[in-house]
Amino acid sequence: MKPLFLPVILGTPRRGRLSAHVARFVTGEIAKRDGVTTELIDVLDVPLPVDGAGDEIQDPGFQARMEAMDGLVLVAPEYNHGFPGLLKHLLDTCLPEYIHKPAGIVGVSAGPWGGTRMVQGFLPVLRELGLATIFTDLNFPQVGKAFDGEGNLLEPAYVRRAANFLDELVWMATVLRHGRENVAREEA
Amino acid sequence: MKPLFLPVILGTPRRGRLSAHVARFVTGEIAKRDGVTTELIDVLDVPLPVDGAGDEIQDPGFQARMEAMDGLVLVAPEYNHGFPGLLKHLLDTCLPEYIHKPAGIVGVSAGPWGGTRMVQGFLPVLRELGLATIFTDLNFPQVGKAFDGEGNLLEPAYVRRAANFLDELVWMATVLRHGRENVAREEA
Amino acid sequence: MKPLFLPVILGTPRRGRLSAHVARFVTGEIAKRDGVTTELIDVLDVPLPVDGAGDEIQDPGFQARMEAMDGLVLVAPEYNHGFPGLLKHLLDTCLPEYIHKPAGIVGVSAGPWGGTRMVQGFLPVLRELGLATIFTDLNFPQVGKAFDGEGNLLEPAYVRRAANFLDELVWMATVLRHGRENVAREEA
Amino acid sequence: MKPLFLPVILGTPRRGRLSAHVARFVTGEIAKRDGVTTELIDVLDVPLPVDGAGDEIQDPGFQARMEAMDGLVLVAPEYNHGFPGLLKHLLDTCLPEYIHKPAGIVGVSAGPWGGTRMVQGFLPVLRELGLATIFTDLNFPQVGKAFDGEGNLLEPAYVRRAANFLDELVWMATVLRHGRENVAREEA
Fold first, then answer.
1. Is A97 contained in some domain?
2. C124 touches chain D (CB under 8 A)
3. Which end of chain C has fewer CB atoms at under 10 Å, N or C?
C-alpha cells in the first residue's frame, strides 16, 4: 500500500522559536513509523506575500504538498491565546487540498497551559478548511524544560505521548483515505 | 448491509420552541433515505436530574441509543451565543459511545445568523466527546418564517440544503463505521 | 461608598465536586477585602426546572442577586472541554441584570490544564449576556492536590494568585459601576 | 475634555477587498461625532515582516497609534470561519498599549452570516490583549449588496446600526478612560 504522507508544519516565524525543537522531534517520531512518510514544512520557508490573501498568494510548492498529504500535523505556539497569524495566512492559501483529511495539533507554550487555548481557537478554522481535527492533542507546556539548547529531548515521557497522538492520526488518516478512494459521496 | 442509525436530538426544552419543527423536518428527510434509520430524541423526554452531572446521571435509554448510533444530528437554537445548557448536560452523560462517529449540527435562530455562534461554541465539546463534526452545517435563520404554525415547511429550498448536509453526514458515517469495524487502531 | 457586591457562583452539581473547595476559598478571599461583600451561590440550591429555558424558568432569588451584584465570579470545572451545562442553563435565566458588569472566571480541573478550555468556551456567552470578562483568570489544575479532604488550602501560592485575580475584578467592578451610575449612554 | 481617539483598522490585505468600503463608511460615521477623532489604519500600510512575530517586528507608527487610542474598531472579513491571519500578526506586535481599552468588531462576509464566526474566534485573543470587546457588533452580510462599486452605501439601515454600535463603543471608551485616569488598581 502507498505510504501515508503526514507532513508537519512548523507554524511560527518567531526568532529563537522553541517550537522548532518540537517540530523536529515530532517529525522524527513520524519518520520512525512503518508505512508513513513525512517532511518538515517551515512557515519561514514558504514565500508569503503580505499584499494579498487566500488563493491569490498560493505557493505552488506548498499547494503540491497539501494536495499530496494524507494528514497534517500543525506545530504552533500560543500567542495571545490564539494561533500565530502567519500560520493562518498560510493555511488560507489552499482549500480543496485539505478536504476529508485529518489534522493533529501540537500545542507549545512557555507557561503551564501547553497551548490549549491555541488549539481551541483553531478548531473552527480547520473544520471549515475541510480538515477533521483528531481528538488527541500533543501539548508541550514549559517547552524550555522539555529540550536542551541543541533540541535534544529532556523529558522521555513525550515519546509515549507522541505515540498516542500519532496512533490516532494514523488511524484517522488510514480510514479517511479509504473513504476518499472507495466511498462515493452520493448526492441525494 | 446494516442500515446506518442516525438519530436526531432536539436540544432545547424551551416552551413553544420552533426548533421542534426543524427537528421533525430533518428527521423526516433522513427517514426518506435508503439504508438509513432514524429517531427523534427529545431532550424533554430524557430524565435529566439536576443534582449530578456526567455518567452519574446517565439514562439507560439514551445511553443505548448513543451506543447504537452511527452518526448524530444535533438540532439546537442559539441562546446567548451558545448552545442550550441542558443539551450539554445531556451529552455529558455519555462518552465512549460517541467515539469515532460523526455529528452534524443544525442551527436555529429567531434572528438572521442561523445559530452560527452556537455551532462555533459546540465544536470543541463535540471533539472532546470523540465525535467528528462534519464541515457542512444546516442553518435556519428567522425560523419563524421557515414553517407555518403546524410545522409545515414554507421554504422549499431547505429540502436541498438538508440533502447537502445529509450527504456529508452519510458519507462520514459510512467511512467511520468502516474504520471502526475494519481498521485496527495500532498502538505504536 | 456602598460596598461592591461580588457573589461567587459554584457552577457544578456533580457529587463530590472539588470545585466546592475552590468556591469556598475564593469567597473567603473576597470576604477579607474592605469595601466588598460577597455570597456563595450554589447551582444546587437554585431551583432549576428542566422543562423550560431562559426567563421562563427564572428564580426570583437568583434574579435579585444578579440585579444587586456589581461583579460576578464563576467557579466551574471543565467537563468535556466546556462549561457545565447546568451553569449555562442557570445563567440564561437572566439578561438585563448582567449588563455592564464584570465577570471573572475560576477554572478547575483534575488534570493539568486548569480549566483553560472551559474559560475559552465561556467568553462568547458571557459577552452576549452583557458581562465584561476580565482578562485575568484563576486556574486550579490538579485540584485534588490543592486542598485536603476538608477543603483546607494546601498550596499557599493560590492566595497571591487569587489576590491578582480579585485586584482586577475589583478595579473593573469599580470602574463599570461608576460608568453605570454617572455616564449617560448617549444615543446618537 | 480631550477627544476620544477611536481609530479603525482595516484588517485584510486581500485584493479587491470590499471590507475597504466598510472601513471607510465606519470611519466616516465616527468622524461625524462630537468629542471623537478617528483615523483609518490599513493593514496594507503597516510594514509587516514575515520573518518574525510579536514585539520583535513592532512598527513605531502603529505602536504610537495603539498607545494613543482610547478604543479600537476592527473591520475584518471572515476567512475560513476565522479572522485574517495578517490582522492577528499585526495585533500581536503590541500588548501594554491595549490594556483597559474597548474594542468593537465589524464583521464582513460575502455570504449571509455577516462574519459572526470571525467575531467568535477573535474574542479570546482580544481579551488576552487586554481589550474589552463591547457586546454590540456591526455585521455586513452579503457586503456586495451594501455598497456600490465606488463604495457608496446602498442600504441606509446601516447608518442606524453603526450608530448603535458606536454608542456602545463611545460609552465604554469614556468609562474605561475615566477608570485608567482616576481609579487606582489597588494591589491587595
1. yes
2. yes
3. N
Is residue B125 domain-resident? Answer: yes
Q: For chain A, how many structural domains are there in total?
A: 1
Burial of B134 (0-12, 13-18, 19+ CB in 10 A): buried
Q: Coil, strand, or helix at residue C142?
A: coil
| Contacts with D15 (C-beta within 8 Å, 6 or more apart), sequence order | A51, A52, A56
Minimum distance, in Å, between the CA of residue B115 and any CA atom of chain C: 13
Kindly give, in sequence order, each residue whose CB lies less than 8 Å from that of residue B60, ignoring residues fewer than 6 positions away.
Answer: none
Asked if residue B116 is part of any domain, the answer here is yes
Q: pLDDT tens-digit profile of B95-133? A: 999 999 999 999 999 999 999 999 999 999 999 999 999
- CB burial class (10 A; 0-12, 13-18, 19+) of residue A64? exposed
Tens digits of per-residue pLDDT, D87-137?
A: 999 999 999 999 999 999 999 999 999 999 999 999 999 999 999 999 999
Q: What are the pLDDT digits (tens) for C68-85?
A: 999 999 999 999 999 999
Q: Is C103 on the interface with B (CB under 8 A)?
A: no
Model confidence pLDDT, tens digit, residues B124-172: 999 999 999 999 999 999 999 999 999 999 999 999 999 999 999 999 9
Write down the residue that cell numbers 500543525 correspond to. Answer: A74
Interface touch D187/C127, C-beta < 8 Å: no
C-alpha distance from B138 to closest chain A C-alpha (Å): 14
**Within a domain: B188:** no
C-alpha cell read off for C160: 497571591
Q: Chains A and D: how many Cβ contacts under 8 Å?
A: 117
For residue D95, count other CB atoms closer than 10 A to its CB: 16
Find the Cα–Cα–Cα–Cα dihedral B150, D113, C132, C39, rounded to 10°.
Answer: 30
Domain CATH code at residue C74: 3.40.50.360
pLDDT, tens digit (0-9, with 9 covering 90-100), for A131-146:
999 999 999 999 999 9
Mean pLDDT of chain D: 97
pLDDT band at A49 (very low <50, low <70, confident <90, very high): very high
pTM of the predicted model, to two decimals?
0.98
Torsion of CA A111, A113, A115, A116, to 10 degrees: -170
| CB neighbour class for C178 (10 Å; exposed up to 12, middle 13-18, buried from 19) | middle
Determine the structural domain holding residue B170 and report its residue range: 4-182
Confidence of residue D147 (pLDDT cuts 50, 70, 90): very high
Which DSSP letter does residue A40 get? Answer: E
CA–CA–CA angle C116, A133, D105 (5° rounding): 60
B97 interaction partners in chain C (CB closer than 8 Å): none
